[in-house]
Amino acid sequence: MTLTDGQVSPREFPTNRGGLCQKGWTSAALLTSPARLTTPLIRRCGVLEPATWDEALDLVATTLGELRAEHGPDSVGVFGGGGLTNEKAYALGKFARVALATSQVDYNGRFCMSSAAAGGTRAFGLDRGMPFPVEDLGKADTILLVGSNPAETMPPFVQHLRRSNLVVVDPRRTATAELATLHLQPAPGTDLALALGLLHVVVADGHLDKDYLAERTTGFDEAWQVVAGWWPERVERVTGVSVADQRVAVQLLADAENAYVLTGRGTEQHASGSDAVSAWINLALSLGLPGTRGSGYGCLTGQGNGQGGREHGQKADQLPGYRKIDDPAARAHVGGVWGVDPDDLPGPGRSAYELLDALGTPTGPKALLVFGSNVVVSAPRSDHVADRLADLDLLVVADLVLSETAALADVVFPVTQWAEESGTMTNLEGRILLRQRAVEPPEGVRSDLDVLRGLAIRLGQPEERFPVEPEDVFTELRRASAGGAADYSGATYDRLASGEALYWPVLGPGSSPRMFLDRFAHPDGLARFIPVDHRGPAEPPDAEYPVQLTTGRVLQHYQSGAQTRNVPELNDAVPEAYVEVHPDTAARAGLAEGALAAVVSRRGRMEARVRCVASMRIDLLFLPFHFAGSGRANLLTNPALDPTSRMPEFKVCAVRLEPA
Amino acid sequence: MRRVVVVGYGMAGARFADEVLRRDPSVALTVLGEERHPAYNRVLLSSVVAGSMTADSVRLHGKDWAADHGVDLRLGVTVTGIDRARRVVLIDGEEEVPYDALVLATGARSWIPPTDGLRKPDGSLAPGVVSFRSMEDCEQIIDAALPGTPVAVLGGGLLGLEAARGLAGRGCLVTVVHPVGHLMERQLDAGAGRVLARSLGELGIEFRLGALAVEYVAGDGLVLDDGSRVPAELVVVSAGVRAATEIASDAGIAVDKGVLVDDALRTDDPRVHAIGDCAQHVGTVSGLVQPAWEQAAVLADRLTGVAPAARYRGTSVVTRLKARDIDLAALGDVHVDLDCPDHEVLCFQDPARGRYAKLVLRDDFVMGAILIGAPDAAAAITQLYDRGLAAPTDRLALLLGRALTPEVASSPADLPASAVMCKCNTVSKGQLVTAYRGGATSVSSLVEATRATTGCGGCKDAVCGLVDWLNRADGRSSGDVGSAA
User: Which residues of B are less than 8 Å from A206 in CB distance?
Assistant: First the structure.
């Protein structure tokens, strides 16, 4: 979109085809919002008070220096965000590894894309959310959309789904499910079993693409040994999806000349999320879709820079270019670019929730720097996270408004936002986008890059190591990523500014809109079937907590709501937390439409207005996760982690409903 | 090290071995199998008969499974005795296998009715007669089931009907002979049985109900008790099974219809356990896979010490017919009359379309159900039953599933002013009408005024319809209806 005189207008672009939702139209309101921070804040005698930049930077650098001297570099943690530009994500990871020498860095994308990334990497040797341009979807005959609700989270994207037979997998009858040819409504936490069942049907109904299996994949037999035990009638009993619907879904996929399987957070944000992704990829492979022109598997990215955010080194186990931090060659290369001894680079650190869980404990960090994240609203078991933050010696938050996390900080840095700064983002297709600065930031506000440099210099780093100009950072990022999986070396601001469509890897003059057409990224060029089995929710319902809770977004709000709750038009539309519930379940709990309900789990209690929705499963509640205080859905959610991706189980936990 | 010996390498024995290895790969595990090939999934044999699965695709373990997991697997061996005092299993009359814990997973055998001619004098099955239990049975059936072959299936229970459906799919001329007046009488009432017979009849299967086969004449067929004949070159016997308990009873272990076990799946010898089709738990010999697998998990929990207090409390049974083009589920107690005072019984019958739905409730909870040709209801009611959930008050919607769609407003006039027409931008009908009254009387000017249609574009038709309606109400012609942004 473009910004003229404080007014937003949509831009014709492949992903949105000239459409904007209410969040886009109203986004200019944030530039001039009275809630905007314009001066650094320092907590004095328990109160956040305005301070100068030098005061704030000096205080933070001094305290960090003392902590490091006394307790070692891992006493300082860094928490990033999937909304940061590539340049910021890169600089943040470098700052942590070089200026702080800490291994304790991770980001909120761990709560978002980590299961998809793990599943994609296992199967294809590489994780690019969509290894094809989004326009390709428009030509598909059938699209299987699993655990994603783009009609609310990304409305303009829905235009790409209109021509196809759309099969939606979601425990709720969402706005997206309303658009579907077929809606499969599995019990929460059972979609992995559904994926196994659909693969079973593919085989039983004679749709297995044996030539593709032989030429392009390996591991089917091992995967099948598990899948054979998931015949459709058994799957129906576990998932509640009828055998008839399972067969129709497979038939729609198999009859299609071109078909896609797409996953979203609904199937990924589980303690078995990586395995669920593997199961959906196995299904796509059995039909010969990935790496075939006009067909494929992809995941839908959740945050603005959800793809780029996971490539450039703000993840606990990664270095720029999507490199593994424990790979000696990767360390040597990146150390060379950064001008440091590779042996001085720290190793892998704690994953996001584990990092938050360790804060202020004897073995955990004593200080935390947060950029682009609102963890007391967005992390699971958020009351516990707030307790951990309270035990820190120093909490530093960089944000554009006083988010709920910033309000707890010892030092707050006011930073620039979208239209006030240049930088690149990598969208859900792996396409690198340049966002040009359109307006001057308010007086007193600095960019995150500026904040990092200010701290780095005070921590004894040479000035030139932390440039402030985004293009300079990007130029260095290109070198650091060269030779890695996500190789940006051939991408330049000039090429991007000229409107060229650049999909990574970008090594030379070309780019890579469609990957895997000839070979997958494993050394043998083959895709892998991964044998996975259904485990079910980490916390099954019981007599005390008899119903299940799932969480998600509403159209008007974004993530923790820290930004969108400050836009009057959005906040008026959806001003407070609500709970969607089947009318009978509400009635049995003594609640009517509009009443204030309490939702209680083993981890906490929150309050929300009852919204009766007849299409809800009778044993399921839905809460949007955008609200603060007692309206936080994440007071309830379960921090059980996926063993591979370390993704928490946001999407299902056991709760009870009662009058507030 | 603890030595665990499993007698039987079918669905229960193989699953138990998997569950043990998953919990503790160091357990010294010996598995003794009577058949010569690796374990296979018996549930899928009807799919093999139907031709949708191959013998290869229903194997539970690969050929390297035992070597890969360090399991001492013996195939094609016969257990000839258990010496409980010395804690050894005797195989093939000579070798002794010592155990610390013994698990009987010997399964069940087909019951062959005493019809003349089904067996040869030596007790083996006569030519043209095959039971429906093992992979060999399956292979024999498939070899004989050429298109046009007359086949008789003895037994109109679940497995018999699955075999009949598979054989009809192969083009055989199938007749099911069943001694009771309606099919699947253990799971269905008479009405449901009739609907099922009608639906299967439309798929080319014939039925002789309430009829007993009195004689089999090889090469000719069956003679029934009313004197009539059923031509058959192949007779598939599916008249029920009997638990294989001889090994246990010979060793002096308590046996009734099956090997008696408690909630810990122990027999009356605490070192000997039984699971699966050979076991009898609280009066029930299940003969189904779900209980067998749940028992395998509980016993593995106990014997590996992962959860020594684990107990098996029984499995609620849901019967699901696996037959192409027939959707049948039955669960719980369905033999309750419509006017039974302390139950609520709902019933819907549409035999012409192969539908039958009966739901038995007590205090809102599902006690039993039969669902034929109602896949939505079958899936939903099974979930309510398994999860112990109270049924929704809209019983009709529950029984009919998505057949019952909510009414959609046919004209913009019927929508309330608060109805949100453009979801992407939260624009209500009221806001659109207000903007129209304020002068935005064309679609393009309405779009500009309200941003409706500028998100996903899905409401474009509805907004055009609204403008049409307002124009008509105002007596205007519908100007630039097609020019929405």
Answer: 52
Q: Where in chain B is the domain with CATH 3.50.50.60?
A: 3-109+242-304, 129-239
For domain B129-239, the CATH class is alpha beta
Interface touch B41/A229, C-beta < 8 Å: yes
User: Which among B43, B390, B424 has the least Cβ separation from residue A21?
Assistant: B424
Q: Closest Cα to residue A134, out of A491, A501, A493?
A: A501
Q: Where does chain B hold its CATH 3.30.390.30 domain(s)?
A: 327-410
Cα angle: A588, vertex A594, A597; to 5 degrees: 55
Would strands B173-178 and B344-350 be described as parallel, antiparallel, or unpaired?
unpaired
The CATH code that applies to domain B327-410 is 3.30.390.30
Q: Looking at CA atoms only, how far is residue A240 from chain B in angstroms? A: 5
- Which residues of chain B are within 8 Å of residue A173 when distances are taken between CB atoms? none
Q: CA-to-CA distance for B279 and A639, rounded, in angstroms?
A: 40
Architecture of B3-109+242-304 per CATH? 3-Layer(bba) Sandwich (3.50)
Would you call B382 and A158 a contact, using CB atoms and an 8 Å cutoff? no
**Cβ–Cβ of A155/B376 closer than 8 Å?**
no
**Torsion angle of alpha carbons A624, A625, A628, A630, nearest 10°?**
70
Tens digit of each residue's pLDDT (9 = 90 or more) over B168-218: 999 999 999 999 999 999 999 999 999 999 999 999 999 999 999 999 999
At the topology level, CATH places domain B417-485 in: Arc Repressor Mutant, subunit A (1.10.10)
CA distance A248 to A250: 5
Q: How far is A338 from chain B (nearest CA, A)?
A: 44
The 10s digit of each residue's pLDDT in B397-449 is 898 876 555 555 567 778 888 888 888 888 888 999 999 989 888 888 988 88
Q: Return all residues near A267 (Cβ < 8 A) that are at least 6 apart.
A: A146, A147, A169, A191, A192, A273, A276, A277, A280
Task: Report how many Cβ contacts below 8 Å link chain A to chain B.
Answer: 119
* pTM for this prediction: 0.92
